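Exercise: predict the fold of this chain.
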Amino acid sequence: MLCALSYLVVTFVGLTASIAVENSLPPANPKPGATAAIDVSGFSSSAHHWRGIRDESRFIKVEPNQPSYPPTQVREIVTNILRFQRDNGGWPEDYDMTAILTEAQVAQVLATRRRQDTSFDNGNVHSQVAYLAQAYTQQGESAWRDACRRGLDFILSAQYPNGGFPQRYPEPKDFHAHITFNDGAMIGCLNVLKDAADGAPQFAWLDDGRRERARDAVQRGGACILKCQIRVAGRLAGWCQQHDELTYAARPARTFELVSICPQDTTEILRFLMRWDTPSAEMVQAMDAAVAWLAQVQLSGIRVEKVKAPPQEFLRHTADFDTVVVADSKAPVLWARHYEIGTNRPIFAGRDGVKKYALAEIERERRTGTAWYGN
């Protein structure tokens, strides 16, 4: 993993300005007949939640074996993205932007446009903005540019003055109001904004006003990241999934997401900080310390395995397997999802919120419903 901590190549961004300025912008360079595939991996987490996790609150449910558009069908995927975009410029979480929708589903999506159910969770919002920027650059459709701009403006409006981003916006409540690194929320937004600020090719059409707003947002976001970094006995370590929006302290989220230091979120933060051409001395210190912490807590001699088990239906999912940790001296190194602050011991919890020190000690519902280890 440490070797993989290199510059992250991303494709994102957008913002807002006056109509006169917009009309003076250079057009994108459409490629007649071009159907080059655009990466749809940014939608994978939300698509997985829609297709694989039950949630009765969703306004459309997945149909059995519902098909998806291939990445080459850019126009059809953009049509979906525009359908799902809310009047406030954002998108509801946990739907599949590549799904081939039924007529009834389309009608229901369009009927809910005024809802304020927008969220950055599970790679949402910034992934749509990133896709639209690329699609507009490829095809030159002004409606796609306008939707991208509205999405970018939504991102900018959601940022706290201190540079952090909540999980949900507008009017976030409870842990949804915390500065959220989990599931690509804050770093996804900042990567889009940095692409806009840096003049990435897919944002060549962006006006100077929006670019400057993006530049300011990125600077404040970087400062917020440094303030959130956890210290243990005076030494910098990594970051938690969520941090207090006022004090920057590590905070819990759902009952099974305890206060901890989280390698996967830490790695994503590091990759973003590495995008600075001239990082400050404080940034360099933060990155060096976090990489050292990651090296310190890597786990050797074990692997995580899914084993066949009797099918069992849970509230959100059904599992015909169990997840176990197996000794294996030849296994590649792993990292746990959560480490106890102060001891660096991997920690786990079920829906009861009780801290455990072994995966086998929590219930099967959470063993099969959360990725407790990663690379």
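Check your answer against the key: The chain has two domains: 9-228, 302-374.
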